[in-house]
Amino acid sequence: MLFSLPDRLRSPEVPVKSAVAPLAHEIPSTPLDEVVAQLNDAYIEKGTPMFMRTVLALFSGGFATFALLYCVQPMMPLLSREFSINAAQSSLVLSVSTALLAVGLLVTGPISDRIGRKPVMVAALLAAALCTIASALMPSWHGVLVMRALVGLSLSGLAAVAMTYLSEEIHPQHIGLAMGLYIGGNAIGGMSGRLITGVLIDFVSWHTAMLVIGALALIAAAVFWRILPESRNFRPRSLHPRSLLDGFTMHFRDAGLPLLFLEAFVLMGAFVTLFNYIGYRLLAAPYHMDQAFVGLLSVVYLSGIYSSAKVGALADRLGRRKMLWATIVLMLAGLALTLLESLPVVIIGMLVFTFGFFGAHSVASSWIGRRATKAKGQASSLYLFSYYAGSSIAGTAGGVFWHMAGWNGIGLFIGALLLVALLAALKLAKLQPLAAS
Question: Any idea where the domains of the chain sit in the sequence?
Answer without folding.
Answer: 46-228+237-429
